[in-house]
Amino acid sequence: MISVQDEYRGLLSGILHGGAQKEDRTKTGTQSVFGRMLRHDMELGFPLLTTKKIYFNHAVTELLWILQGRTDIAYLNNHGVTYWDADYKRSGRTDGTLGPIYGHQLRNFNGVDQLEKILKQIKQEPSSRRIMASLWNPNDLDDMALPPCHYGFQIYINNGKLDLLWTQRSADVFLGLPYDFAMYGLLLLMLAKGSNYRPGRLTASLGDCHLYSNHVEAAKQQLSRDFRSLPNVGVDLGIFIAEGAGNFITIPTRNMIHLSGYNPHEPIKAKLNT
Length: 274
Prior knowledge:
This protein is of the alpha+beta class. The protein has a single domain (4-260), classed as Thymidylate Synthase, Chain A (2-Layer Sandwich). It is built from 8 helices and 10 strands. The strands form 3 sheets. A 6-stranded mixed beta sheet has the order 1-2-6-5-4-3. Strands 7-10 form a two-stranded antiparallel sheet. A two-stranded antiparallel sheet has the order 8-9. A hairpin with a 7-residue loop joins strand 1 and strand 2 (30-41). Helix 1 (4-18) packs across helix 8 (216-223) and helix 2 crosses helix 7.
């Protein structure tokens, strides 16, 4: 069994001790490695790091926002998520949206609802090697407030288990990556619940894995902490196509998602570099 806690610590330590110095878009400066895969077996618990507090509700909010095909900044702000605000302001947009980003591409990629297609494939062709979504649409990149960092995922079903692999071009390892793990872990649980499979393995395929220079001391503090037990997450309702009038897609609401047993170390503050 492989745990996100060991995998994440290994990546963070590897960047600190062997990452290349690299310039970046924000002009902050980073230490960076390229091409890493991190894994987590869901039987060990939910992949929410315990060496610092991760705000699970933020991951829930962003995932539900994406699954619903939304791109508006108001939904995020109304649920306490403000880290997209700087990208919205910098983009110069005035329509209240971040452009055709994650949710738009998932639910309307050149007219295709990729979530609907995935759900049908899981039910009708569970052995298919084509159960996947792409969130990287070159036609729309210039109209996005920020091109997708995590840009696709694939489903693998075998021996009664559902595995999920997501791909990511850019990973802010200290601040962003823990939330990506939580978000895709929750997506895996929702898809497994809706299709009556057991949750299997979650895998991250990462391109540029970087630690910002102003996060180095915070990362050292996190590495000095011991692991605590991983929490559990339950979902009352999975994602599935409700057959009947309209064949609409059922997506759980936030009150159907339950986090229990989470006892992390204190949060570690760090600047969001935008």
